[in-house]
Amino acid sequence: MPKLTFKGGIHPFDGKELAKDKEIVEIKPQGDLVFPISQHIGAPAKPVVAVGDHVLRGQMIAEAGGFVSSPIHSSVSGTVKAIESRLNPTGGRVNSIVIENDGQYEEVEFTPHDYKTLEKSETLDLIANAGVVGMGGAGFPTRVKLSPKDPSTVDYIIVNGAECEPYITADYRRMLEDTEKVVGGLRILLSLFDNAKGIIGIEDNKPECIQKMREATKDDQNIEVMALKTKYPQGGERTLIYATTGRAINSSMLPADVGCIVDNVETVVATYNAVALGRPVIERITTVSGSGINTPSNFKVYLGCNQAELVEAAGGLKEGTEKVISGGPMMGFAMITLDTPITKTSSSILCFDKDEVSKYEPSACINCGRCVEVCPGRVIPARLADLAEHHDEAGFEAMEGLECCECGCCSFVCPAHRQLKQSIASMRKVVLANKKKK
Ligand code: SF4
Ligand code: SF4
Question: Residue 184 — φ and ψ, nearest 5°?
């Protein structure tokens, strides 16, 4: 019997009450749209438009720059105003295509397809050409994920509906309001793998979603909706695979090595749009929530839209708001400015009236062992952080530092407020970069 949970993990305040009942509202962008050519893992896309060109909504403006890459499409009609370096949400500067919105939203012609009549290679091409990537945050090109060495060894396509990060309700609303698209996307994915069954994994704090998904799949013999124990990081790839199938992977393995492919809810909807509707990735659902925002909301947002516009649409920041995070409070990153665009991986903007992290000064470890108890990577965070702080790469690797999934549980529980995850994550980057060089 598969286990519906994993070892370790934590139960942070989930804050989902703020936005969970807010229906998805579509907002049209007002200002210029900015499209970073690198909003996925892999080679940056290559612009195929020039300054002064007129473009339509849905038109490809940058093509994939390699096999592991993804094209980018304009979400509005208008004129290419510039191709220049712009700040992206992670704080880095990225070459970006800037489009002046003409407010007409004139679209290219989209061609719907019945996936049952397509060859597998045609379905994969539609997904690749639509620019579908992992929209839960990873940004890995979906076409590549769907192309394992031997597709016949894939037993499970797992839809990640856990949404375990506090405050975010984008997937929750998507599952409630676009149930058929989620199920339709999964059916398309299953058509690519002859031996695969579908699993939709949802935390048990979302009973309405579980019920709707069960109803929508009651005639699909090869799809099972699984209720998962609510616990962070239930939606991590490794923890989700373990909870739903009992199979374990480590940092040197891919999910396909244990016969699994995992896709987030928004990615599965993008797959449905790409194939069934012939529409590229030009919009997504983004939650704007937290104690520092006036009207917590879930928006259908046009990619490239300025994040400040979303915050305004959610009633603006409350006075005294101290911190704004892109992504979840556990794995997201603090933003230095709202003047950055929504990208394919922007699941949320969270605004907080108190900066809980910088409030505390770290002190010495008291050897309480709490970080070890909660670590889903089964490593010793206190020891790894020491090794990271002493730049001991060999020791870090020997102590399995690469098995850390950067979930942040250890920092969350540490009574000494040590920045364990930050130290470990920095060291992981160094070790991985050096391994790549070798
Ligand atoms: S060491 Fe890594 S995997 Fe373990 S709790 Fe800390 S951040 Fe999570
Ligand atoms: S939780 Fe903090 S204080 Fe406790 S053992 Fe880990 S690092 Fe040390």
Answer: -60, -40
Pick one of 3.40.50.720, 2.60.120.200, 3.40.50.11540, 3.90.1140.10 as the CATH number of 130-277.
3.40.50.11540
Query: Does the CB atom of residue 413 touch ligand 1 within 6 A?
Result: no
Nearest CA residue ID for atom 1, ligand 2: 414
Residue 382 Cβ contacting ligand 1 at under 6 Å? no
> In whole angstroms, how far apart are CA 185 and each of 118, 207, 275?
15, 21, 9
Which amino acid would we find at residue 182? V
Q: What are phi and psi of 205, to 5 degrees?
A: -90, 10
Query: Could you tell me the residue ranges of all domains in the chain?
Result: 130-277, 370-437
pLDDT, one tens digit per residue, over 390-410 is: 999 999 999 999 999 999 999
In ligand 1, the atom with minimum distance to the C-alpha of 420 is 6
Atom of ligand 2 nearest to the CA of 369: 5
User: Ligand 1: which atom is nearest the Cα of residue 374?
Assistant: 5
Per-residue pLDDT tens over the stretch 206-250: 999 999 999 999 999 999 999 999 999 999 999 999 999 999 999
Reported pTM: 0.94
